[in-house]
Structure formats: C-alpha cells, structure tokens
Amino acid sequence: MRLKFVLCLLLSGASVNPCFAQKQGQKLIDSLIHASSKMKEDTLKAHLLALISLNYPPIKPDEGIKYGEQALELSTKLGWKKGISSSYSSLAANYNAKSDRVKMLDYLFKALKISEEINDMRGIASNVNNIGIVFEGNGNYANALEYFLKGMKLQEEIGNKSGVAIASGNIATIYLHEKNYAKAREYNAKALKITEELGDKEGMPFYLEIMGDIYRAERNYRAAIESYFKAMKCAREIDDLNNVAICLGFVGHYYLDMAEDSVRYKPDSIIPPTKALVLKRAIEYLDSGRSLSQQIGFRDGVFDFSEHLSEAYEAAGNHKEAIATYKRYVALKDSVFTIENTEKITHLETQREIELKDKQIEIDKLAVAKKRNERGFYIAGMVALLGIVVYVGRSNKLLGREKKKSEDLLLNILPSEVADELKEKGVADARHFDDVTVLFTDFVNFTEAGERMTPKQLVDELHNCFKAFDGILSKYNIEKIKTVGDAYLAVSGLPASNVNHATDIVNAAREIRNFMLQRKQQMGDRTFEMRIGIHSGSVVAGIVGVKKFAYDIWGDTVNTAARMEQHGAAGKVNISQTTYELVKDKFSCEYRGEVEAKGKGGMKMYFVA
C-alpha cells in the first residue's frame, strides 16, 4: 500500500528551469506541457516530455504513457541514447502505477541496456534499483536483494547520497521480509541518517515508517508507535496527506495488534493501561486514517483500514458497527472488482484492435510484395503468401480467444442483449418495458442475526445465499439487477420480452423460499429468515454511469415490489393483486385482504403456497 519514491528520471545531469522548481503535481505538469509546446524538436524537448511522463504516475498514468511514448519517439528520431533510456524509465514508472509489472520490467531492462552501452553510471544505478523493486513486488526477495545491493554499491561509487539512501531503505525492507530485523534496522538507520544530513523532508516519513514496521514485527509497540508519530509529524510539515493517512491507519492497526497481544505489551504514556482503551485508540486512528484516505482518494487506504476497523469494532464488542463497516469494506471490494473488470475489458478490446491492425499491415505488405515480384519471384511470393495465411490463421484463433474473454467479462456486468447493443453502437439506450415482474427479497432482523456472527461469517453467509439465488434465477432466464446490502432485486420479462414473466418469477421465488427454509433448518442461527415480495407492471431499464456502469431498473413497479416485501412475512412469498391475476390459474394463493402500505394505501395481497 505504501508508495516508493524511487523511479527517478536521470538524464545527462540537466536541471529543470528554476521557474518549475516550486511547482508540484498537475501545476508542474501543466507548466512543462506549456513550455514543451513552444520548443523545436531537440533534446531539451525530449527531456521535458520525459519529465512530464515521469510526473504523471500518481495522477494519470495513461497520460504519462502517452508523453513517455512521445519522448521515446523524439529521442529515437534524434538518435539521443540518454533520452531513449530515460523515456524507457519514465514509461516503466507509469506502468508501475498501473501495476503492470511485466511491461515495467521490460522497459527497465531496455533502459538498463542502453545505460550500460553509453556507460551512464547514474542511469545504470537507478535502473538496477528499480528492477529490484519489481522483483520485490513479485515476492522474489533473493533477486531483489541482489539488485538493491548492486544499486547501492553503484550509488556509493558515483557519490550519489540520495541514491544510497533509497537503496539502503529498499534493502531494509527485504531484510524485514526475511525477518532479519537486525540487518533491517542497520540499513534503514543508514537511510535515515543520510536523509537527515541531506535535509530530505520528503524521504523522512518513508524511512520512519519502515522503522515502525521493523519495531512492530519485533512487537516493540512503543518504539513502533513513536516511529509512526514521528513520520506523521514529518508528513504534516510537508503537507503529504497520503503518508499522514498511512501513519494514522498504521498506528490504529498496531493498537489493534496490541489489544490482541496483551501478554507482550507494557502500558505507559503512549500505550493505554487497559485493553478497552487500547481498542478505543485503535478505532479512533483507523477511522481517522480511513476518513482521510477517502477525502484524498487514496483507495488502498480506505480498503485496508476499513477491514481493520471492522476487526477493532468486533474486538470491542460493537457488533453493529463491525457489521456496518465490514459491509462498506465488501462494497468497496465489489467496486474494485467492477473497475478491474472494466479495465480488463478495455485492455482486451484495445489488444484486439492492435492485433487486427498488425494483421492488416502484414496483409498489405504481402499485396505490395506480390505485385512487385509477381514476374520474377512467383514461387517466393507463394511461399510468403502461405506464411501469411498461417499467420492470419493463428491470429484469428488468438483474436477469437481474446474476444471471448472480453465478451465473458462484459456479460458478467450486463444482459447479453444490452452488451450486444453496447458493442455495436458504443452506447445502450434506456428502454421502457410494459410487461415485467419484479422480485424483491430481504432478510428479517438482519442486524440482530449479524450480532450472532463475526463480520466475515455474516458476509460469507450472504455470499452463499445470493450465489444460490443466482443459480435459481438462471434456470428461468430471470435477470438479476443488483444486491443492496442484504436486499436482492431481480426482474423477469426484460431485456427480451417473456409472456410467462410472472409465472417464471413466482416459480423462482418459491424455490428461493424453500432453499432458505431448508437452510434455516440445517444451520439455525447461523443463517437468516427471509421475506419475498413480487409485483408486475412496467419499468424503465438502462445503463447508469460511465465508469463503474451498471444495468438498473426504475419505476413504480419496483417500489411496489419493495412494499410487497416489506409487508410480507418470514418464509412467505407475498404478491400483489396485479401479479395474482397473472398466476392465479397456476398457483394456490391465500388472500390476505387489503394491507395498508406506506405511500400506497390499502393494497390487496396474497401469499403463494
């Protein structure tokens, strides 16, 4: 979760114009873009394009890749090898931000090769260090340590103290992974000392956090928390909110560790004297870290600290807050999954387009070659044609596999008809459907049931129930719309019309009811009781949003189905008069009379047997 500030651009020692020196983030990027737009195509412009690319990773890595490719293209055109190496390094930084370690490593090795060709010692040292980071991220600590040690030696040889500090800190993290705490402290202390000597305020929080990690691993909680408080103070001084959030969350996390390790910690002025107070501190700091992470858009912080905050509430006996927090954590996890699916779809479609273009280029080349050589090289042309046919055949197979992957991901998010429309037109229009039936389910006394389970048990049971519901709906071609907490919404009769929409959904509802009744008999208090409500009518359906898009339905029919659920009973399927008229000849129903429903007045309702 913690960010490493190690991917640095190393050209020929050229410095940035003083007018840029005090600017950071998007302001610096905008200034660099403005300056580069007025320059002729020379090495200075290539240098600025690479700098623009390097500043984009924490903001917009895709934009960083665009400028990195421009820098690479210009440096190649100029034959400027240092520029080519630096362009590769900046591209690696952006692919690191996108967690694409394969491309990151590829670009770093390319940069290293060119740095070695021109004997650029600073470039070699930087790339060696960054290759170590990729190995560390993949859990290959032996290779990572080898590269970090090599990088530190090179930095010492060229007298780059800042580089020595970075390499030392990275070596410390490897020894921490390997539980060699003495070596970890030794190298991290070296990094801290150099950082203090250089007055590097941006580096101090990073190395103080590593020291906190080391102390925490040794269960020296007092020293760990002191290190995090120091890191937090340094981060506040330079307005580094990302590291402030990290420190807040980590302090809370370690208070939680202490509460669970009551034998090992010794209360003092920093550590409260009782477990209840330790947990109170844990909740306060974790909640502060989560809130700040949410404010600054630090998704990993929100995700990580929400999970630990739920654990802290559970340990403190506050089951209601534990459940609520864990549900927020799971919702965030689901949103991350949706984002990742969308990104995968986009990536796969892009790959398809690239491969199609490459295939067309090869075919065009064949046509030109055939025309040029048709008199003298007929046999050679036929051989080439055969090669291209084989290539095209293989490409088509590959494209077919990639297309299936992208379509499977899309169908996991949208109905097939809507997905087809989206692929064909680029958009999917909202549509009105006159004859559909909506199903709404909700668990009875969900909060109270959750108090008998841990948050993990609660969410696991929700998952098992909803997974079973999904399977039942699939049998009747019913479209699941969404889950909201412990509620479940589905509809029959769209996007493809279905004259049996009411019958199908009542059949599915009865199977869901029977599944839950049987599960209740088997598991007792470890599962839930459930109400089901059904109503038929018209709805509007379509895609909402651009990012994290979702297929949804709206209209009074949805609201009425919710009222049917709310005024139903545990273990019962409650249907409206409208739905009853559609299914009365196929199911035995018990008339309940008119029931007063919020916002609807008296409504005739029926229980399905």
Walk me through the structure:
This protein is an alpha+beta fold and 609 residues long. Among the domains are: 74 residues; 179 residues, Nucleotide cyclase, GGDEF domain (Alpha-Beta Plaits). 66% of the residues lie in helices and 11% in strands. The protein is built from 22 helices and eight strands. Strands 1, 2, 3, 4, 5, 6, 7 and 8 form an eight-stranded mixed β-sheet that branches. A hairpin with a 5-residue loop joins strand 4 and strand 5. Helix 1 packs antiparallel against helix 2. The longest helix has 55 residues. The chain is globular, with a radius of gyration of 31 Å. The two termini are 53 Å apart. The relative contact order is 0.04. The N terminus is likely disordered.
